[in-house]
Structure formats: C-alpha cells, structure tokens
Amino acid sequence: MKLQLATVHARKGKADALADKVREHFQIELPTDPRRVAAGHVGFMATAPGTWLATDDSDRPGFAERLIAALGDLASIVDQSDSVVVFTLSGPNVRETFGRIVPIDLHPRAFKVDQIAVTQAAHIPLTLWRSRDGVPNDDPNEDQNEGHSATVFHFAVPRSYADSLQELL
After folding, report:
1. Which end of the chain, N or C, is surrounded by fewer C-beta atoms within 10 Å?
2. Beta carbons within 8 Å of 78's beta carbon, 6+ residues apart
3. Within a 13 Å sphere around the CA of 125, how many CA atoms are in the beta-carbon half?
4. Residues 45, 115: contact at Cβ < 8 Å?
5. What tens digit of pLDDT does each residue of 13-25 get?
6. Which residue range forms the structural domain that includes residue 29?
7. What is the CATH number of the domain that holds 163?
8. Single pTM value for the model
9. Which of 29, 10, 33, 23 is nearest to 116 (CA)?
C-alpha cells in the first residue's frame, strides 16, 4: 500500500466553503491548528493557514483526482505522492533518536498523538506527525490520555532529500 498525498490550498475567501465540502465528502472537520484529523483512510493535516496536507492510505488509486473532483472549485490541489518520501520511525528510543535532529520537543505531553509540525532536520524540510501503533508501552511517563501504546512518528520529506535524511538517521 502506497500512501498518497496532496496539498490542498483554499482559494481566497473559500476556506469556510471548503471546510463544508470536506465535511460533506470525507466526514472530516478540517483542522485549523497543527494536527491531523482522519476518517477511514483519508486524513487532513493543517500545515499553514488555509493549507492542508491530505493523505490516503487505501489501495484505491487517484487520490488527487478524487480531491480535485470533490474540492477543485474551492481549492488548489497538487498531487504530492511522487514528490515526497514518507518515513515512519517507532520503537523504544524513537523520541531520543529523532529528537536529536529536530528542533521541537517530542515528549508526549508536548507533542501529542495526531499533532503535526512543519519543521526541519539538519536543514532538511519535513512535515512530521505522530500516531500510535498499538504496541504495549510500559513507559511511566506517558500521560493517561495517551493510552498505553508505543509512539510512531511519520515524516514527509521532499524526495530529493530522502537519501540525506536516511543517512542522517
């Protein structure tokens, strides 16, 4: 399964209408703060005012085309599926490892599940988001509303930087 991605940028004065269309077509409330909201296989991440990174983790091809058909009169949509590489990091030392190369606090009280950040690692631009993977976690520092699952970080980087980031990791 290949994660499909597209940038969705609301046209001038159309953000509210776009939010209504996304709610109607995808049953998702577009986030206005830096977090990921998903329903089924589709998710939207607020990456800037009026801009979202939309994802689809289904096996159904043509995500950007479906977005254009549903939202194209209200937003500019650009397929990002072949222009970025998405890495996934998890494990017992993921916060410590990844935290050394990004300038944000990855502690679970500071960077919660479904929170996102548009940041950089060693001058490499990336979009980072956090999810759970359901593996039991005995970390006593996890707060109660985090559940008891190990942390997973996903990050999308421009394809031209993927090798450099992989070497850095």
Report:
1. N
2. 6, 7, 9, 64
3. 7
4. no
5. 999 999 999 999 9
6. 4-79
7. 3.30.1360.120
8. 0.85
9. 33
Low-confidence winner among 67-81, 91-105, 106-120 (lowest mean pLDDT): 91-105
| 52 closest CA partner among 35, 69, 65 | 35
Q: What share of the chain is helix, strand, coil (3-state, %, to 5)?
A: 25, 40, 35
Summarised one tens digit per residue, pLDDT across range 45-68 is: 999 999 999 999 999 999 999 999
End-to-end Cα, the chain, rounded Å: 24
Could you tell me the CATH number of the domain that includes residue 13?
3.30.70.1520
| Cβ burial, residue 45 (10 Å; 0-12/13-18/19+) | buried
Those residues whose C-beta lies under 8 Å from the C-beta of residue 47, and which sit 6 or more positions away, are 7, 34, 53, 116, 118, 127
Distance CA 28, CA 20 (A): 9
Q: Do residues 47 and 37 lie in contact, with contact meaning Cβ atoms separated by under 8 Å?
A: no
Say whether both 48 and 72 belong to one domain: yes
- Residue for token pair 């776009």: 18
At 46 the three-state DSSP class reads strand
